[in-house]
Amino acid sequence: MMLQQTEEAPAQSLGVKLHHLRKKKRLTLKQLGALTGCSESMLSKCERGHVVPSLDLLSRIAMQLGASVAELFSDDRKDTCAVYKEGERPVLELGTATPNGHALLERLIPYSQGRQLNANLHVVPPGGGSLGTLSHPGEEVGFVIEGYIEIEVDGTTHLIGPGGSFFFRSELPHRYKNIGQTTARIVWVNSPPY
Predict the structure, then answer these.
(1) In sequence order, what DSSP letters do the residues of 144-161 get, joined into one string?
(2) What is the pTM of this model?
(3) Cβ-count burial of 140 within 10 angstroms (0-12 exposed, 13-18 middle, 19+ buried)?
(4) What are phi and psi for residue 33, nearest 5 degrees?
(5) Which of 162, 165, 168 is closest to 185 using CA atoms?
(6) Can 10-72 and 91-191 be said to share one CATH topology?
(7) 11, 47 in Cβ contact below 8 A?
(8) What pLDDT digit, counting tens, does each position of 11-58 carry?
(9) How is domain 10-72 classified at the CATH fold level?
(10) Protein fold of 91-191
């Protein structure tokens, strides 16, 4: 299946937004690094579009910059109706690649300030996942289309396969990983947009 990227490379677009928000907050790379537990070098690579941070690191950066993860990937569209055909959805690469490739998010809803939902198709290769524990305001619901994921919420681990669904409060520490041998595809919805 061929996945289409947005017009501007996702890493470059993300980097520009991270740089802008950091400058707006009047933080140096060193200060942001201390707040997020990340090296200045890694943050600099993220801002220059050479690296896309893991979802865990991106979450910590967004929190310190006063933004949501969804905002960082905003395409600033104000559409009241959006229709994407197969292969047209904006695709975001997340973090470090596994030997089987990167985890991808296919946007189901274009991000815009004021929206109440964020929905993506998570495409997670074997061994891929959140690469850390997440916690943020809101609620999450997901439906596994194919593959198998292990999701841990507040210290309890669940194995979810095709046709399985899940719900949890996002404030609870959570993480996920594809523990199967094939790519997992999960429809994942957050409210409010994370």
Answers:
(1) EEES-EEEEETTEEEEE-
(2) 0.67
(3) buried
(4) -60, -40
(5) 162
(6) no
(7) no
(8) 667 888 888 889 888 999 999 999 999 999 999 988 888 887 887 888
(9) 434 Repressor (Amino-terminal Domain) (1.10.260)
(10) Jelly Rolls (2.60.120)
